[in-house]
Amino acid sequence: MKKVQFKIYKPGKKYNLYLLSAAVLALSFTSCKKDLDVKNPNNPTFETNVTTLNGLTSYAKGATYWNGFAYGNGWLGDSYFSLPWGYRELMGDEIGGGQGSNNQTTTMGVPDKFQADPSDATTVFTNPSPQALSIIRVFNTRAASANANNALFYQWNSMYGMINSCNLILENMGRVKSLSADQANTVKAWAYWWKGFAYAEIGSLYYAGLLIDNSYSINNKYVSKETVIAESNKYLSLAATTLAAITNQGAYNGVISALIPAQCQTGLGAPPSVAEWTRSINTLLARNILVNHLAPFVNGNPSATINKASIPVMATADWNAVISLCNNGVKNGDHVFTGRTTDANSFFSSTGGSVASLLTASNQTTTYKLSERLVQQFKSGDARRANFSTANGTFFGDANTNTTRYSLVDGVAKGFTGFQILGSRQVGGLEIYIGPTYEENALMLAEAKIRTGAIDAGLSLVDGVRQYQGAGVAAVSGTGLTLAQALTELSMERLAALAFRGMSYYDTRRWGWTYAIANGGGRYGCVINYKGNWYTNATIDYNFMDYWDVPADESDLNPPSTDSAPIKNPNW
């Protein structure tokens, strides 16, 4: 089926952004003609197109993979995993932008200031256009969105499109009369899961959001990010209880296999069992707690404090909740939700559909650039360092922080084995992890154990992830590390093991690194190039806005009610 392009909004008319993002819903990918009688592929309806189980699963598949992850994401790359996740990796300083202006990718990751040598005041760089006020606020307009210059637009657009589509499924699946109770519950769990996922994505990045219970409905009461995360938790819990009610595994297996695109059903992306899916839910519930609380670890200080943050510090009860959830979270070998590419009709491409694919080539030509700060997270002797090459020379970026000696190697083309491959442009070669993974679950559990006094138990989990990814470095458990040393190992491994999975900004934010040094934040001991010289102990003062304002595309067309929560972050 040909991918349909469509207008996001029409000036002068009052629409919710999420209504328009869901106006075009693809039904299926490679087998839509066989499964459905598609009267009008641009305007499918339950009355005419979705009357059987095959029709329903095709519709639900399109709601997620096309309406959520493809449509509206063709500005840079071609999916949710290329630009929306790209901003998070830029702000987490795992990648840098190229030269010139392209969707603000050259500006969103540039810090307010850095000092290449803390003892030399002549090595200070000051950004004339700070991110929060000069980029986020100035370009948060509908006109900027139309010209691909409003970074706040894309994630909001995609996730509310997904929410609206899931609402349509839940409201209309009763029209399919032939469903058994277990088949119906599998589809319901699917819609609940992806609504929970989408609300988690909104509530973890934006200062406020909308709760949308009905499709194509207008709601102008904005709620706090905490309320949005609570909504995510509600739907994730609904997904879990709905899965628990399934008794016929054959019925479940038939439906879940039809909901996941065929090309994704390989490796760890094979259809999850009910138990595996439930463990993914628990891990995402734990993530909702972790990434929306502070756990400051600044300049090696586990007791650092951050001022002017929009989220509270993790309490002992929060760490214990993470431990409880992760003890029942994704296990080594579990099947999880992933994406893979095909030659045609895929919801993202092998060359431009993810952060990793946009990185995989010479640093002289790629859209994104590998950050020196990412490479330094991999220890000397780590087998995974083979993913990085200096053969293409140094790229000197417009911003000093973009300068890098490294390129990401196509590990599949090179035939790498025995360790985690980070990048590839080969069709079907790279597994993109959409939901939680074993590594994420293990490292959340590790951090919680370290923070609650079980340092060596936590370090054993760090060692386990390194072994799982084939790092081949010496174990750190049992070596008598202090709390600060253990957190250093933990933070390094999270940034390394979860590279390009859209997590780095959330981690550097909650550790306090992205906050202004004046407010207790900052990043220390960084590798950086300044005026052609390399430094290994630089200090970076990012001062990034921790939670974004609501996009003007929504708030201008759908002004907040008088009882709405604030839609702008008051700390910036």
Account of the protein in words:
With 572 residues, this protein is α+β, with helices and mostly antiparallel strands. The protein contains 20 helices and 12 strands. Strands 3-2-12-11 form a 4-stranded antiparallel beta sheet, with no helix packed on it. The longest helix has 23 residues, at 181-203. Mean pLDDT is 92; it is low at 1-15 and 18-43.
Which descriptors apply to this entry?
single chain; 572 residues; alpha+beta; two-stranded antiparallel sheet; globular
Average the pLDDT over all residues and give the rounded result: 92
How many angstroms does the end-to-end distance come to? 45 Å
The unreliable regions are 1-15, 18-43
> What share of residues is helical?
25-40%
Helices, by number, come to 20
Topology:
Layout: H1 17-21, H2 32-35, H3 53-65, H4 84-91, E1 95-96, E2 113-115, E3 124-126, H5 131-137, H6 142-146, H7 153-172, H8 181-203, E4 208-209, E5 223-224, H9 225-244, H10 249-259, H11 274-290, H12 316-326, E6 338-339, H13 355-359, E7 369-370, H14 372-375, E8 388-389, E9 407-408, H15 411-414, E10 432-433, H16 438-451, H17 455-468, H18 483-497, H19 504-510, E11 523-530, E12 533-541, H20 552-555
Antiparallel strand pairs: 1-7, 2-3, 2-12, 4-5, 6-10, 8-9, 11-12
Quick overview:
The chain has 572 residues and is of the alpha+beta class. It has 20 helices and twelve strands. The protein has a four-stranded antiparallel sheet, with no helix packed on it. The protein has a two-stranded antiparallel ribbon with strand order 1-7.
